[in-house]
Amino acid sequence: MLQVGAPRLVLASASAARRGLLEAAGLRFEVRPAGLDETALKQAARAERLEAAEAALLLADAKARWVAAQDPDALVIGCDQLLVCDGRWFDKPADLDEARAHLRALRGRTHTLVTAALCRRGEQRLWQTVAEPRLTMRDFSDAFLERYLSLEAAHVTATVGAYRLEGLGAHLFAEVAGEHAAILGLPLLGLLGSLRQLGIVMG
User: Per-residue confidence at 1, pLDDT binned at 50, 70, 90?
Assistant: First the structure.
């Protein structure tokens, strides 16, 4: 175990991918999703004409702040991810039809996953970062799309972009540039660096 010090870690996210990344890194942590209306926060960010990176950090901090207010002694990890393609922000699809529409819009194009993460303890923000991996979808056929959606129907509404790169979503892509963990929703290398600086994991 490389995690050696206090405080306790809390992940303010229900994401299975983020949880899996922290577990694979050997960290001990609790999962406590924030009770926030993310859609309303994103709409407010758009109304204020924030850049995608600013909006992602705003959302990540709102989640961390919500959890930290209830547990001020813990080190809370807040995360958020926005998919941006040709200036358009994509949210998680509401249903299978919207997933189909999103994938058609992204097909043959390059998009950016604006991925923010930060650490907060009580009222103090201790670290933050934004990673922007870029992914290019191949020009797949409509027949492939329908088969993909039939196989991934249980998962496409759970992720922005309607894909899991760690699963069948890999078949959608021609090229990927950026940290794999950041694509999954958490810039892990930066987070581990911050935890070393804070004395929570061994240096």
Answer: confident
